[in-house]
Amino acid sequence: MPTSATERTGHTDPMDIARLAALGRDAGGTGEPDVLYDRHGVLVVRVGAVVVKLHQADREAGPALARRLDAARALPGIALAPLGPPHRLDGRAVTVWPYAEPVRPEAPPWTEAGRLLAALHRSPVPPDAPPWGRPGRVARVVGRLAPGTETDVIRRAFAALPAWIRDGTAPPDDGKVLIHGDWHLGQMVRAETGWLLIDVEDLGVGDPAWDLARPAALYAAGVLGTDAWTAFLDGYGPSPHTDLWAALDEPARALAIQIAATCVQSAREEDRDLDDAETAMVDACARIIRA
Amino acid sequence: MHCPKCRGVMRTYTRNGVHIEQCDNCRGIFLDYGELEALSRMEATHHAPPPPPSAPAWGAPAVHHHHHQGHHRPHHGGGVFHMLFST
Predict the structure, then answer these.
(1) Which of the four pLDDT bands, split at 50, 70 and 90, describes residue B35?
(2) Binning pLDDT at 50, 70 and 90, where does residue B49 land?
(3) ∠ CA A279-A149-A251 to the nearest 5 degrees?
(4) Which of A71, A106, B71, B86 matches a 20 to 30 Å C-alpha distance to A129?
């Protein structure tokens, strides 16, 4: 969610900002509203010490989301606790949070990230915890791609994924631990007590490999440096798997394809060529087809 | 076996496959033929950098060959920023 001031598209209705700000003031926030994030149908407004998030229209709201927020509330020191239950605005979910500092891009806390995810994966699973959000995103972003050379490579790599990932359905063995479900560096904030996870809309029971899949995909593609990847794994601690990549392979493939598709889509929308890192992700898709 | 220096009793210890005789009395150590070399090798391995982390079959060539640390250092701009910081 909050990443940087550049995360704006400017297409948002000013009324939405005003309504989110009003909810923020109800929760004790003071001062002028500041838009932290306005992209991909998500709007995040800060009012002093309070942050209000308007979720994407197609994301779950109501009891299902409330259960995930309850799970986050039961993870002190691991996840940021929401300020109250979710609201609704024109059918869309709205959640209210205390403000905390996002990760500075020039100093990614890889070791702390690994440690935080390991702590989450060791946490007791609440009896009513829902299954995690499922890997539906990869199918959604690949499905939106227009025809083209790069998109052809991405689509062929996607077609080689197991059916359950392509369909976003329940996997054969989904694991028995609590996972974040959509982890990246933008999903951590620094509170007074230390780093905490945010954006828990996919939080639930699943295979922990999915939480490591994004940095794994970027490392495998040659985009993430060895130092960063090693620091992340060191923070995570000993893996229960003797062969780490046997566990990471499928989730990392899915994420590499998802990231490549997102990059190609962004480049098209901005009418520009792919940069080196984005090209590396498409190249990874080409190798996935052959592997 | 008795200590060649003080005639104390030598006790045998095995550490990482290397047999070491140590005198209970003067703490002197007796190494068999080749054991000093074995210890030196172990020390060298201990100080060597850890092996690079593994990568999947579809990993980039640079990841597999692992030329040197920081070869593909990420430049946190543009595409990389979004890959690391957004869904």
Answers:
(1) confident
(2) low
(3) 55
(4) B86
DSSP A232: H
From chain B, the residues in CB contact with A186 under 8 A are: 84-87
pTM: 0.81
Cβ contacts of A210 on chain B, cutoff 8 Å: none
* Cross-chain residue pair A263–B79, CB shorter than 8 Å: yes
In degrees to the nearest 10, what's the CA dihedral of A213, A215, A217, A218?
170
Q: Which residues contact A193 (CB under 8 A, 6 or more apart)?
A: A77
Q: Where are the domains of chain A?
A: 14-99, 110-290
The mean pLDDT of chain A is 91
Tell me the nearest-neighbour CA distance from A151 into chain B, angstroms.
17
* A40, A219, A262: residue with CB nearest B63: A219
> CA distances (Å), A115 to each of A1, A19, A197, in order?
21, 37, 11
Write out chain A residues lying below 8 Å of B56, CB-based.
220, 245, 248-249, 252-253, 291
Q: Is the pLDDT of residue A272 over 90?
A: yes
**Closest alpha carbon within chain B to A276:** B79
Query: What CATH architecture applies to the domain A110-290?
Result: Alpha-Beta Complex (3.90)
Q: Would you say the C-alpha torsion B68, B71, B72, B75 has a positive or negative sign?
A: positive
The beta-carbon neighbor of B69 closest among A226, A256, A277 is A226
Closest by Cα among A228, A188, A136, A173 to A1: A188
Pairwise pLDDT comparison (A242 vs B13), residue with the higher score:
B13
Write down how long chain B is.
87
For A70-116, write each residue's pLDDT tens digit: 999 999 999 999 998 999 999 999 999 999 999 999 899 999 999 99
Q: In which element (H, E) is residue A101 found?
A: strand A101-102
